[in-house]
Design goal:
This protein is 15% helix and 28% strand. By secondary structure, it is α+β, with helices and mostly antiparallel strands.
């Protein structure tokens, strides 16, 4: 039972795939690795639904015994007043209350329970699409009084105290304000020429309060274009960096539109999108260029590391 929903808490999984042509954005967890690790900690399949909290956490009461985990940003969670660390599975009993405060570092946290949430998928996904009112819990953000039914775990979480993971470096107690993002130039980098590209890759930008699940809006040096940045609309990928008429870049995220008419100067690689998902207003970011082959190698390495971790947990 949700007693207090926090600033923005929604049900999210790995995203809605196969419906871009119908105008549905993928949605899904902004920091997908954190959501997957929360599921691994409680013995779920990695891409099951979790609750994503933003900046201010929620308060809830458990109606049954179970096992839960928190990953991503540290919200200073307490179970019945006792501190609960992130990246560690913990037992809960019927009647327990879990209270999450303001994020100490990072921006988004993930809450998973063993067995997962007993909800109905929409278009093949449990992710909440707020603009369309589809998926998750009634297609909306959570509010006080909501009761989320739980499924029975497929397998018991044995020796749960051994299900512990290290906190990622970008989510330690000292917030990182200098975030470096690797990005592949293009696909419309030619609209900006050498001068615009050098400005983009050579400047620091700051995350603005106008950022949301759709896009991270940045403030900083204006990126000049040859003759404007309007193009015939084409597809938008996760991490696409659009440059509107203002010359200020916007990085497209989970709830991005499916197509867009602004030129894209680069695409942030998938492995670095969690860094941006955890960036807070005022944090400084800059971009460094990488080639497609390097981006693919980094993605393969990250996927292999996750598979090794999944195999390791199968033995616990």
């Amino acid at each position: 039972t949700v007693l207090a929903p926090g600033l923005l808490s929604t049900v999210q999984d790995a995203g809605r795939k196969g419906f871009l042509a119908s105008g549905f954005s993928p949605s899904g967890a902004m920091d997908l690795p954190a959501a997957r690790l929360a599921n691994l900690l409680v013995g779920n399949s990695m891409d099951m639904a979790t609750i994503e909290m933003t900046l201010q956490g929620m308060r809830l009461r458990f109606g049954c015994d179970g096992v839960a985990a928190l990953t991503g940003a540290d919200f200073g969670a307490r179970r019945n007043g006792t501190p609960v660390p992130t990246y560690r599975a913990f037992a809960v009993c019927a009647g327990d209350e879990l209270t999450c405060g303001a994020a100490k570092s990072g921006c988004r946290g993930y809450f998973a329970v063993a067995g997962g949430f007993d909800l109905t998928p929409a278009l093949g996904s449990f992710s909440t699409n707020l603009k369309c009112g589809v998926g998750g819990f009634e297609g909306r953000k959570l509010k006080a009084g909501d009761v989320l039914p739980l499924r029975c775990p497929h397998t018991p979480v044995a020796r749960q105290s051994q299900r512990v993971l290290p906190v990622p470096p970008h989510l330690d107690e000292t917030p990182r304000t200098n975030i470096v993002l690797r990005a592949v130039p293009g696909p419309q980098a030619d609209c900006f020429g050498q001068a615009g590209t050098e400005t983009f890759f050579g400047s620091w930008y700051h995350v603005t309060p106008a950022s949301d699940r759709m896009g991270i809006k940045l403030e900083g040096a204006k990126i000049a274009s040859h003759s404007g940045s309007d193009i015939i609309s084409d597809g938008i990928a996760a991490g696409s960096v659009q440059v509107p008429a203002s010359g200020k870049p916007i990085v497209m995220m989970a709830d991005r539109q499916t197509t867009g008419g602004y030129a894209k100067i680069a695409t942030v690689i998938s492995a670095d999108l969690p860094l941006l998902a955890q960036a807070r207003p005022g944090d400084a970011v800059r971009f460094v260029p990488v080639c497609v082959e390097d981006a693919q190698a980094i993605a393969r390495e990250a996927a292999q590391a996750l598979r090794r971790l999944e195999y390791q947990f199968l033995t616990i």
